[in-house]
C-alpha cells in the first residue's frame, strides 16, 4: 500500500515539476505535501528521494528540499548528451531496418501520424501538445534501437529536457522546420540509411543546443 501511495506522490510531483506547476527553486515541504495528498509522510519522502535521483529535486543541507533550478550551462550539457544518444539510436534503428529486423514501412506508419499531429499543433499556445508528441516520436526510436543502456541514459535526462522544451520551444524553436526534420529522420531510418539517420538525429538536437548557447551569451 505504501508503494502505491509513493508512486502516486511521485507521479503527481513529477508532472507538476515538468509542466511548470512547481517552478524551479520552489521549496518542497514534506508535511504540507502529505497533508495535500492525504497520506503519511513516508511515501512522500520516498517520492522525493526518487525525484532527487531523477535530477529534478535537490536537497540543500540546513536549507531544505527544492525543485532543482537548471542553469543554461546545465541544459547545454544535457543536450550534449542527448545529441550523442539520439544520433546513435537513429543509427542503430536504421541498421535494424537494413538487416530486416524491423519493417521500414511499419515503422514509418508508427512515426508519421505523430509528425502529422505535430504539424497540426504548431501555434505557440499548442507548444505543450507539440512537445509531448515530439517526446513520443523520439521514445519510439530509442525503444526500438534495442540498446537498453542508450535508452536508459536518455530516459535519465528526458524529464529535464522536457522542462527545457517547455521553456525554449514556445519562443525560440522553429516548430515548422522541426516537423520537416522529423520527416527526413523517418525517411532515412525507414530506408535503412544508418549514417544519414545518425546525422539527421544529431543535427536535429544540435539546433536546440545552439539556441541555448545563444541564450547564454545574452545573459
Describe the overall structure:
There is one protein chain. The longest helix has 27 residues, at 72-98. The mean pLDDT is 90. By secondary structure, this protein is mainly alpha-helical. The chain is globular and about 55 Å long. 31% of the residues are buried. The protein is built from 9 helices and 2 strands; from the N terminus they run αααββαααααα.
Unreliable runs, pLDDT <50, ≥5 residues?
none
Mean pLDDT: 90
Strands in their spatial order, largest beta sheet = 1-2
Number of strands: 2
Q: C-alpha Rg, in Å?
A: 19 Å
How many helical elements? 9
Percent in helix: over 70%
InterPro entries: GntR_C, TF_FadR/GntR_C, Tscrpt_reg_HTH_GntR, WH-like_DNA-bd_sf, WH_DNA-bd_sf
Keywords: DNA-binding, Plasmid, Transcription, Transcription regulation
Domain HTH gntR-type: 3-70
Organism: Shinella oryzae
Give a concise summary.
The chain has about 220 residues and is mostly helical.
Based on the model shown, name its key terms.
two-stranded antiparallel ribbon, 9 helices, mainly alpha, 219 residues
Amino acid at each position: 500500500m505504501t508503494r502505491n501511495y509513493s508512486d502516486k506522490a511521485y507521479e503527481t510531483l513529477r508532472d507538476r515539476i515538468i509542466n511548470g506547476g512547481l517552478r524551479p527553486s520552489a521549496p518542497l515541504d514534506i508535511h504540507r505535501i502529505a497533508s495535500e495528498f492525504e497520506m503519511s509522510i513516508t511515501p512522500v519522502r520516498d517520492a522525493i528521494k526518487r525525484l532527487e535521483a531523477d535530477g529534478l529535486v535537490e536537497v540543500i543541507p540546513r536549507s531544505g528540499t527544492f525543485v532543482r533550478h537548471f542553469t543554461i550551462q546545465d541544459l547545454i550539457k544535457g543536450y550534449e548528451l542527448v545529441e550523442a544518444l539520439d544520433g546513435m539510436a537513429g543509427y542503430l534503428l536504421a541498421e535494424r531496418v537494413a538487416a530486416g529486423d524491423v519493417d521500414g514501412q511499419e515503422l514509418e506508419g508508427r512515426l508519421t501520424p505523430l509528425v502529422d499531429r505535430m504539424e497540426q499543433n504548431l501555434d505557440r499556445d499548442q507548444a505543450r501538445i507539440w512537445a509531448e508528441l515530439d517526446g513520443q516520436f523520439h521514445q519510439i526510436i530509442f525503444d526500438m534501437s534495442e540498446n537498453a543502456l542508450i535508452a536508459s541514459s536518455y530516459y535519465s535526462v528526458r524529464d529535464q529536457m522536457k522542462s527545457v522544451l517547455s521553456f525554449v520551444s514556445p519562443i525560440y524553436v522553429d516548430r515548422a522546420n522541426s516537423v520537416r526534420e522529423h520527416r527526413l529522420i523517418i525517411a532515412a531510418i525507414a530506408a535503412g540509411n544508418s549514417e544519414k539517420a545518425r546525422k539527421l538525429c544529431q543535427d536535429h538536437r544540435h539546433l536546440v543546443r545552439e539556441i541555448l548557447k545563444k541564450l547564454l551569451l545574452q545573459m
